[in-house]
Design a protein that fits this description.
This protein is α+β, with helices and mostly antiparallel strands. It is 41% helix and 22% strand.
């Protein structure tokens, strides 16, 4: 290592010595030659106004031209500073485009019964309401009530192999010909087999136009779409009002087929005895990446086709819960050992509380765990309601379904979902200023106030560099030799050995 340092030190001294010798051999221009060089530069430069200062003999005009040139330089510097300040504030503009099309892709629609459980299954098992609230807490916030703790411990001790997943699948809401009385998509009948089962906080839910279809369903006429008639069977399905489930009807959410359904705050409810008319439109949003926008195009999801903030939050919670508890809730995406009820109560719920408290899974800005997506598709919906059904229609459905008018008003829900227009709206966030626009703006300011261009800048750089070289030659000729350039006699032999070793 010591020998290596010697080699480096010798090379550095040798290089400095060569530069010094080269510069000292260059002849130092005389004072007259330097004045002539300055005069020629002032007369030939394309920087406007400078030659007027040199040519004019009037002192007043010389001072005026000096003030004009100096003022122009100050204004140009101020304008360029403003341009760069504005550029590095990362401004954006938003454009809205309405694109008309001949046909448009229909979204996915997920339906759930507001009464989540079959009455006979929970008649003597009221703890199920509390258990499902704990399990579905991975999808929405839920505070555990300590008044159920003793009852829960007793239940877990006596039912160690109890599977809440299978219980809900077998004893939750079901979709068959008795609950889906009518289904029509764009003039073609649809059946319960066209829906895909999915678990949500509402238990068993069913998605129409799901992602696994070989081809996406599309519509080519506005005002027509999906029509469904549900029988929610209030006598057979129930829920616990103490947990906030006090309504009767169907709740549904309209979403992209590539995204998971999200009900928390976004579900649309239709009560019994009502006909809902949902007019949808398609809104595509494109957001710039940071620092212009808040999206991060490098984030990819492992268990979802496309990136979405909701899907990202699900995967984030799944990772933290799996690391802490060694299992994975079945409501969250991923591959792992399924959490049992004991794990849900003793580990998963505290882990979820810790995730919220510590802010381990955040959403929104670019530096959060789950920033906004760079591209997303939403379906803004306008819903209107009418009473179902009229007196004459009641008689018709009563005869057709062999049900009383009272039953029809208390159990049937009619939902129509259709496009308002055959178009989609695209909202695109764009960079307000590109690099080429910045350079063009700076060049325009230089040309307007100083008549300068890139050639002018090169001329000034050449002039400054030439004077700098002359200054270096002057200092080297006048300055005494530096001590490090003189090699002491006692170290000559050591250095020679170092050179041979190198």
């Amino acid at each position: 290592m010591e020998q290596f340092r010697k080699c480096i030190g010798f090379d550095a001294r040798g290089l400095l010595e060569k530069i010094r010798l080269y510069l000292t051999r260059k002849p130092l221009p005389s004072l007259e030659e330097r004045k002539k060089f300055d005069h020629e530069f002032a007369m030939s430069t394309s920087f406007h106004g400078v030659h007027n200062i040199i040519q004019t003999r009037s002192k007043i005009r010389k001072v005026l031209w000096m003030l004009v040139v100096l003022g122009s330089i100050i204004i140009v510097a101020w304008q360029i500073w403003n341009r760069f300040t504005n550029y590095f504030s990362w401004p954006t503009t938003t454009s809205v485009i309405v694109q008309y099309v001949e046909n448009i892709e229909f979204p996915a629609v997920t339906f759930c019964n507001l009464n989540r459980f079959q009455a006979h299954a929970v008649a003597n098992l009221s703890i199920i309401f509390f258990l499902w609230s704990i399990v579905s807490g991975v999808l929405h916030a839920f505070d555990i009530d300590n008044k159920f703790s003793e009852e829960l411990k007793d239940f877990l001790q006596g039912n160690q192999n109890f599977s809440i997943k299978e219980f809900i699948r077998n004893n939750g809401f079901y979709l068959n010909s008795s609950t889906l009385l009518e289904c029509d998509f764009f003039g073609q009948p649809c059946y319960p087999e066209d829906f895909e089962h999915v678990f949500t906080e509402y238990g068993n839910c069913f998605t129409f136009n799901h992602m696994d279809l070989p081809a996406r369903r599309r519509v080519s006429v506005s005002g027509r779409g999906l029509s469904l008639l549900f029988d929610i069977k209030q006598a057979q399905f129930t829920d616990d009002p103490t947990f906030g489930f006090i309504d009767a009807g169907i709740i549904y959410v309209i979403h992209s087929p590539k995204e998971p359904p999200r009900f928390d705050g976004l579900g649309l409810s239709t009560p019994v005895g009502m006909h809902a008319h949902a007019a949808i439109s398609q809104l595509k949003t494109v957001i710039q990446e940071y620092p212009w926008g808040e999206c991060n195009p490098n984030i990819k999801l492992q268990h979802h086709k496309i990136y979405s903030t909701y899907g990202c939050l699900q995967e984030c919670k799944a990772r933290h819960i799996q690391d802490k508890c060694g299992c994975l809730p079945f409501l969250l995406p991923g591959n792992g050992t399924e959490c049992d009820l004991q794990k849900f109560y003793s580990c998963v719920s505290p882990a979820l509380y810790n995730i919220e408290l510590m802010g381990l899974c955040t959403a929104g800005t670019h530096n959060s765990t789950c920033p906004v997506p760079c591209e997303e598709t939403d379906y803004p919906t306008t819903v209107t309601y009418s009473s179902f059904a009229s007196e004459k229609a009641l008689k018709f459905f009563s005869t057709k379904l062999k049900r009383s008018p009272e039953y029809i008003r208390e159990n049937l829900v009619y939902i129509d979902i259709k496009y308002h227009d055959l178009n989609y709206k695209m909202t695109r966030q764009q960079k307000a200023r590109s690099v080429s626009e910045l350079l063009a703006d700076v060049g325009g300011q230089l040309g307007l106030f100083c008549g300068a261009s890139m050639i002018t800048i090169i001329e000034i750089v050449e002039y400054v560099f030439t004077n700098f070289c002359w200054l270096c030659i002057f200092l080297l000729l006048k300055a005494p030799e530096m001590p490090q350039w003189n090699i002491p006699a006692q170290n000559e032999q050591t250095d020679k050995e170092g050179i041979q070793e190198c």
